[in-house]
Amino acid sequence: MFGPQTFWVTETVPAPGFEEGIVVRGNFRGPRDKVFEEVCQKVAEFFGDKYLVRLVEEQDLQSFDGSAEPRIVFQIIPKADAEPAPTAGWQRGAAAVLLALTLGSAMQLGLAANVGLLPKETLAWLANPANINSDMLPPGLETFDPVPFLQSAIKVGGAALLPQLAHELGHAVVAGMKGLKTGPSFLIPNGQLGTFGSITQLKSLAKNRTDLFDFAAAGLVAGGSVSLVMFVAGLVASLGGGGAEAGLVPVPTQLFEGSLLLGGLCKFVLGVDAASRASVFVSPLLVGGWAGLVTTALNALPVGNLDGGRTMLVRFQAQKSLYVAMFISIGCRWVHFVLEYLIFC
Fold first, then answer.
1. 170 with 312, same domain?
2. Residue 15 has what DSSP assignment?
3. pTM across the whole model
4. Rounded to an integer, what distance in angstroms lies between the CA atom of residue 75 and that of residue 55?
């Protein structure tokens, strides 16, 4: 599988963590990409699809002097042990249940955003905790038409899910371009934002760091871009004024106080007078864009299998020194904390 014109082998040792895997050390006799393709073809000729070939960086922290490049070695390991397990039936079921719960939480957000459309006597009755367990019909609903109320709630709930849809499409498009297999996305329902985002499983190994970074960043870029466009479009649509007849929804002005950045923009565009009232009529796009921006910030956390965690993993592996990566991680965390403060105040 190796030859003097491709990769001059100097040592072969067992691969750590794989019972039948090996690590082949040596010297490249040509461009790495070309040599890698030739070795992969040779392995496929001898063993079919039983083994997987990877290029791995080896770093010896004892002898690392800060200037030498990490040593590149071949790792030949059983494909069944290296690739993620295929999607199980219970995972599809769990994804379906979470999807249903997320649709419900998005509807809950829409209903909560439109509660100001209910009659005043109904709101006063609901504000009394003693009436919560009552079986009687709240006053003011005898002649209330629920159809416009439900239609407006559906608009807000749908607007809150649009950034998440763009997020998932971003992952799907890059996965198709890079040849990555994905499992079902696990949506995280939340009644205040519609959804906290999702966790998308990778069911195949990325060929290189660039593919993994592009896959993870695609969701953040797509979801964040759509959220920002919706937020700006919602601000513009809210400038025209009007009430429910104009397709706007009454949201409490306390919403503007929940974020120094987003709330400040709303007050600047809509005016101080609008923020001084108990509620202000805004476009459903503004609510959906606001929720999408917060969700994107949460997904950017450098944790686990979140998109931020995967992009941080790529940065960790790309550093020549683990100490440099550690300082970069600390710096990114501080930047994230500042952004989180601006969003959540």
1. yes
2. P
3. 0.76
4. 6
